[in-house]
């Protein structure tokens, strides 16, 4: 479950991580929640909101009314803005990057950099020496020597404050059953570290977090233009990886074959999503949502379906409904065959979505268009 920024910061507060004062706004006519000036931030399940105009400084009431209206009525990369976070302005003396992740790695891994406030993928590509990666023992946490090395690399003088921050982020990560806790930037404000932004992903299969996830989902009903996603997802297996191509299949064998073909063609897979079992339109819709929101920078999705028990008409309805409702613009390659194939292909055709027949050719064409290989 991907959390909105405001939800992620609520979680961080629960684990003692310092965050700015903030208030959620769900309607454009809501009164200003704090004294001016403050920052207004779009609550949306994708990155790039700053470049899209989804982060604005409100100096007065006129600013607030204009920006609240404009931001709540925009879409960013095909995703609707569901709320606004009004947050106190903070001037950071230094901006760092800190995260703990299980996405695309074998063990929980801390990733940090003194070059915070930037695209961490760009930093890793252009300045790899500025990235610190450390595997974490889930039973003991980071060792003392690792923390000392981290403080040195991040050039943080107040080591106790840094160690306390890392300890709290570790606590939040493991106790919340997280797949990712990311703070970018982690700001040094008046000599103390503050989580100025938040990205929080909870493992949807973490049983001890089911009540919390239900609570978060129920609270989202107050959000602007928010619709409850389909709940039927018990058959879905979602595995995050470290590439930029999404893969959805209705069986593990088909999915693993496609994964190998993608790799052989020069593609880099961002996630592997298997529907499993007897699936429905709702499950297909949910798989699309997991794939497209689980990795915000995803460049394209390939869907491989072989209908035996599963009906291709239902699969097509789930795909086309999600694409229409979320205005998906990235390439979607679908190869479907089997039960109710003709109806499914016609549904895809009516929606203006191409379908393909030969898997090997489909994979090569997909990787060529999306990756340029």
In percent, how helical is the residue content?
25-40%
Radius of gyration: 22 Å
Indicate the CATH class of the largest domain: Alpha Beta
Total tally of structural domains: 3
Number of strands: 18
Assign the structural class, choosing from mainly alpha, mainly beta, alpha/beta, alpha+beta, or little secondary structure: alpha+beta
Number of helices: 11
Poorly predicted regions: none
Order of helices and strands: HEEEHEEEEEHEHHEEEHEEHEHEHEHEH
Distance between the termini: 32 Å
Rounded mean pLDDT score: 91
CATH topology type of the largest domain: D-amino Acid Aminotransferase, Chain A, domain 1
Pfam family, one: Ligase_CoA
Protein name: ATP-grasp domain-containing protein
Organism: Qiania dongpingensis
GO biological process, one term: tricarboxylic acid cycle
Put the structure in a nutshell.
The chain is 35% helix and 25% strand.
Characterization of the model:
It is a single chain. This protein is of the alpha+beta class and 373 residues long. It has three domains: 1-19 and 91-228, 2-Layer Sandwich (D-amino Acid Aminotransferase, Chain A, domain 1), CATH 3.30.470; 21-88, Dna Ligase, domain 1; 237-371, Rossmann fold (3-Layer(aba) Sandwich). It contains eleven helices and 18 strands. Strand 10 (178-189) and strand 11 form a beta hairpin.
């Amino acid at each position: 479950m991907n959390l909105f920024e405001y939800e992620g910061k609520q979680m961080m507060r629960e684990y003692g991580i310092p965050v700015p004062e903030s208030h959620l706004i769900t309607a454009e006519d809501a009164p200003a929640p704090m004294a001016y000036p403050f920052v207004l931030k779009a609550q949306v399940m994708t990155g790039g909101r700053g470049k899209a105009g989804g982060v604005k400084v409100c100096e007065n009431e006129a600013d607030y009314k204009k920006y609240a209206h404009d931001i709540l009525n925009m879409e960013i990369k095909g995703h609707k803005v569901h709320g606004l976070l009004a947050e106190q302005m903070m001037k950071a003396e230094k901006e760092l990057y800190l995260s703990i992740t299980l996405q695309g790695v074998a063990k929980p891994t801390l990733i940090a950099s003194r070059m915070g406030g930037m695209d961490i993928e760009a930093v890793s590509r252009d300045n790899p020496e500025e990235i610190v990666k450390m595997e974490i023992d889930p039973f003991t946490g980071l060792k003392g020597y690792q923390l000392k090395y981290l403080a040195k690399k991040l050039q943080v003088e107040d080591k106790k404050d840094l160690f306390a921050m890392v300890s709290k982020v570790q606590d939040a990560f493991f106790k919340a059953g997280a797949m990712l806790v990311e703070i970018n930037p982690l700001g040094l404000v008046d000599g103390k570290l503050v989580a100025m932004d938040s990205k929080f992903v909870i493992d949807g299969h973490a049983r001890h977090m089911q009540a919390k996830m239900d609570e978060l989902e129920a609270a989202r009903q107050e959000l602007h233009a928010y619709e409850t996603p389909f709940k039927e997802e018990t058959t879905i297996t979602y595995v995050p990886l470290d590439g930029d191509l999404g893969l959805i299949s209705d069986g593990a064998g088909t999915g693993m074959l496609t994964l190998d073909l993608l790799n052989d063609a020069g593609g880099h897979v961002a996630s592997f999503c298997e529907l499993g079992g007897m699936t429905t339109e709702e499950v297909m819709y949910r798989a699309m949502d997991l794939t497209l929101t689980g990795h915000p920078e995803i460049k394209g999705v390939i869907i491989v379906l072989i209908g035996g028990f599963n009906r291709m008409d239902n699969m097509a309805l789930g795909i086309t409904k999600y694409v229409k409702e979320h205005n998906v613009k990235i390439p979607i390659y679908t190869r479907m065959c089997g039960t109710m194939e003709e109806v499914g292909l016609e549904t895809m055709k009516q929606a203006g979505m191409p379908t393909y027949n030969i898997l090997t050719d489909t994979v090569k064409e997909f990787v060529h268009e999306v990756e340029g290989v």
